[in-house]
Amino acid sequence: MTATGVARTGARRRGRGARPRFTPWRIVLYALVLGGALLYSLPFFWMLSTSVKPAAQVFATPPRWIPEAWQRENYTLPWENLPFLDFYRNTVVVTALNIVGTLASSSIVAFAFARMRFRGRGVLFIVILSTMMLPKQVTLIPLYLLWSRLGLLNTIGPLVIPSFFGHAFSIFLLRQYMLTIPLELDDAARIDGASWFQIFSRVVLPLSAPALGVVTIFNFTLHWNEFLEPLIYLNKPSTFTLPLGLQLLNGRYGGEMQQVMAQTTLSIIPVLIVFFLAQRSYIQGVVVSGVKG
Q1: pLDDT score of 197 more than 80
Q2: Distance CA 142, CA 146 (A)
Q3: Which sequence spans correspond to the domains of the chain?
């Protein structure tokens, strides 16, 4: 090897092991990102601070970020006054059933749009996507009349049953991801005698795990925090979900804002845990699902 080649090899090795230079523009960019992150996190930190404050310090002027005395009773007293255990149990049941129903129905529909060839496939897919443009408030009255005639008000039926008929956004995400899976895998499985359902369950579905993780996170967050539909269909406190329970706490004890903030802090912990446990699948699924249209 010539001297020039040795010099180039050494330069490459030094370049690989060297740390990135912090140019002025990069420092400015990091400072802007850090400032924006702190700005957007201020309400979260204010919620945490308020959740342990005494009542006299909640609306103090000037505001105090660190309370003089921590009131841990803000986290326990609401559980004595309201059935928060029922609220959490109802929310877990509704969220879990919605996730199962959405994954089961949307994955099958997405597989049909991504792997099968039939007349009118594109038009039908556009019709499904167009349902996302329809505001939910437009369908509230006819759906309420439907569930009322079926005798399912004050039950979890109206909150769960629709998920077993597919979810437009989940279908879109899963279809986009399934389009990135090579069609040669389907052909190989078909040569071995596999049916469409076997191709779906044994080939495509296992390879779509990142996209399924994204759908799970989206639906978990959506139904854990859903407020409008439980407010319309549920009237008994024993059937309330967590968002309605927080509203009930705020309505009965509107002056005890520190207790409302304490229970709100507890309510977002499951969402944060699910996101941080599945954030790798979340990022991978979102990126790859938009590669191929």
Answers
A1: yes
A2: 6
A3: 82-289
